[in-house]
Amino acid sequence: MTESLDHDFYESEDPIWNPALLAIPVPGIRRMVNMAAEMDDVIHLSIGQPDMPAPDNIIEATVDALRAGQTGYTMDAGLPELLDALADYYGKRYKRSLSPENVIVTTGATEAIYLALTATSAPGREFIVPDPAFMLYAPLIRMNGGVVRAIPTRPENNHQLDPQEVIDAIRMDTYAIVLNSPSNPTGTVYPRETIEAIVEEAAYRGVYVISDEVYDHLLYDGKTYPSVLNCCSDLDHVMVISSFSKTYSMPGMRIGWLIASQGAIKKLRRYHMFTTTVANTPCQWAGVEALRGDHRFVDDMVQEYTRRRNRLIELIDETPHLTGYKPDGAFYVFPSLPEGVNGGNVALRLLRETGVCTIPGETFGNSSANALRISYSTSMDNIERAFERMIPWFSKQDFS
Ligand SMILES: Cc1ncc(COP(=O)(O)O)c(C=O)c1O
């Protein structure tokens, strides 16, 4: 797609289009990637998917399922074997009793987010969302008439969320709080106390916590993951979303899920039937293998990401005008440029003049226009080569 197509879509006065589509912003990511596609010798620090191939046992399980004729629809909630495996896996991981009726399998976490937000958002309802945040949440809320109450997080605080700020933002019209830890774009992991304080107050006030946990295995320095599922006494006010995309390097296989109370799952199942019907059948079998098979792949991947993160932090420290911090999870760093500098312009010039593609902070909300998202889901060699271009370029800039 080209820039002009974007323009046509957003400027068109053709009455066929639902005005709700205007809630979808021109995606900064696509603008950058489109421009990069027309250039030679681009180094991408823009990637939002794992760069390692999916493990062999998962590929084989998919092929076996196809050969065994597993090409039909599954049950609407998901393949029973995968629902069992997920309930079992989460039950053991967080030492709580979960049944397959607490789970729905979706087409990636994206569909789970879509179901959770569009099934609850309505005119007059408020949703608390950290800013910056993954770019899907706010538009999905707004498309359905809901209002986003953004809670800015700050780089000097490693983009940690202040639970008291979240609690103070809850009002009569608040329906849900959206959390994403580890975060895209900041890599920030919320400590257990933050999650507990928010979940407890939300349950008390009858507000849902919708927790996107797709990076729940990408945690560094031996930290254990504080999941919302581990911090709530019952499931009455939580929806926990995750997928195989990041953990098993299988984003194109499109298997995600949502865990909630049985009542919530029943409602979402009906909605799911009217959106995607069911998730991809052979890839649901791959998911069963991912959960029940060997987990060494994940450990190796975490080790490699740790190595890259550590080096990237050193390189950001060596780069004039960029201020970084040490993220604890995911595969992103979100360094800041000096106050008032437009990250969108810097990212465009950086791409044009050095061939290094990053993502401007404005893609993820209004509070971080002076930031750049840098992904380390690329080889160490690419990271080194990118900074060999970036450091001299930034040295020549005068942002005052
Ligand atoms: C925070 C977050 N949630 C959800 C997704 C989408 O995941 P999936 O591939 O499972 O749809 C992404 C992908 O980048 C993400 O970063």
Automatic annotation (TrEMBL):
Q: Which InterPro entries match?
A: Aminotransferase_I/II_large (IPR004839), AspAT/PAT-like (IPR050596), NHTrfase_class1_PyrdxlP-BS (IPR004838), PyrdxlP-dep_Trfase (IPR015424), PyrdxlP-dep_Trfase_major (IPR015421), PyrdxlP-dep_Trfase_small (IPR015422)
- Record's SUPFAM superfamilies? PLP-dependent transferases
The entry's keywords = Aminotransferase, Pyridoxal phosphate, Transferase
Query: GO biological process annotations for this chain's record?
Result: amino acid metabolic process
Q: Which residues form the Aminotransferase class I/classII large domain?
A: 41-389
Top-rank taxon of the source lineage equals: Bacteria
Q: State the top-level EC class.
A: transferase
In alphabetical order, the GO MF annotations are:
pyridoxal phosphate binding; transaminase activity
Cofactor(s) it depends on: pyridoxal 5'-phosphate
The record ties this protein, via PROSITE patterns, to: AA_TRANSFER_CLASS_1
**EC numbers on record:** 2.6.1.-
Protein family: Belongs to the class-I pyridoxal-phosphate-dependent aminotransferase family.
Q: What is this protein called?
A: Aminotransferase
